[in-house]
Design goal:
Number of strands: 8
Strand content: 15-25%
Structural class: alpha+beta
Number of helices: 8
Shape: globular
Low-confidence stretches: none
């Protein structure tokens, strides 16, 4: 679950709905910025499905007593999270080998600096998966794979930018992950400028440099769960009782 706290509520977004936005972002990416258009459809599928591991976990939100807030994707119990990562990767692999390889690389990037034994075991298992997948993919272009991996990370980050920021927020009020732009996007443009986004108003954001074929809408599904309702009936029932809402953000360039 992706959660943004307000004074009186929590804005709650399912991970799989966030991944839908990642897919929309990738669909509109300019493929001429990549070395080839090979596997572009597979890259779109990876973006759309990369958080399917969370479908079951996000059915019912869980309260975190330590923080006094619902658990989010960043503080959810690690062992449970990694177990579901594996389930999701297995499901993607049964449909699309290249997409599974991209998603495995993406998940492993979360733990590259960890010394936790469970994280190291996960990395080892995924390294085996990645080697097996590469053997099943003839004429694999490693440089193009790296570009698609960076594209998956960028689409994930840009979707999170929409989810974690209050629409229309000034740069000084943005989530700290994105105040200085997006990481590892220099392969998508020839500028020295860091690729970054900022809000024009509550309904529009600008991305500069603009690595897309045209401006496009991003429809974000969410629930606003009142803190008073959580206090009265608990997080699970309060979430279930809250109505689905949608916010459409227009992504454009200069």
């Amino acid at each position: 679950m992706i959660i943004r706290e307000t004074q009186h509520s929590f804005i709650m977004i399912k991970q799989h709905d966030h991944a839908f936005l990642s897919g929309e972002i990738t669909k509109h990416f300019d493929p001429s910025l990549l070395n080839s258009d090979r596997h572009f459809g597979d890259a779109i599928y990876a973006a759309c499905q990369h958080d399917r591991s969370w479908i079951g976990l996000d059915d019912t939100p869980i309260w975190n007593d330590e923080t006094g807030k619902p658990f989010t994707f960043s503080d959810y119990p690690l062992l449970v999270k990694m177990a579901f990562y594996k389930i999701g990767l297995d499901e993607i692999e049964r449909v699309n080998l290249y997409s599974a390889l991209l998603c495995s690389l993406h998940f492993c990037s979360f733990f590259t600096e960890s010394r936790n034994k469970d994280c190291l075991a996960f990395l080892n298992e995924e390294a085996i998966r990645q080697e097996n997948l590469k053997k099943l993919l003839p004429d694999l272009d490693e440089e193009l794979l790296h570009q698609h991996f960076r594209l998956l990370q960028f689409s994930d980050d840009l979707s999170l930018y929409v989810c974690l920021n209050e629409p229309g927020a000034g740069k000084e009020d943005e989530h700290p992950w994105f105040k200085n732009g997006f990481k590892n996007t220099e392969i998508f443009h020839n500028e020295d400028q860091q690729l970054a986004a900022h809000w024009l108003n509550e309904d529009e954001m600008k991305i500069d440099p603009f690595p897309f074929t045209s401006e496009f809408p991003l429809p974000l599904k969410f629930k606003e769960v009142l803190k008073s309702s959580i206090k009265e009936i608990g997080i699970a029932k309060a979430y279930e009782a809250s109505e689905w809402e949608e916010k459409v953000v227009l992504a454009g360039g200069s």
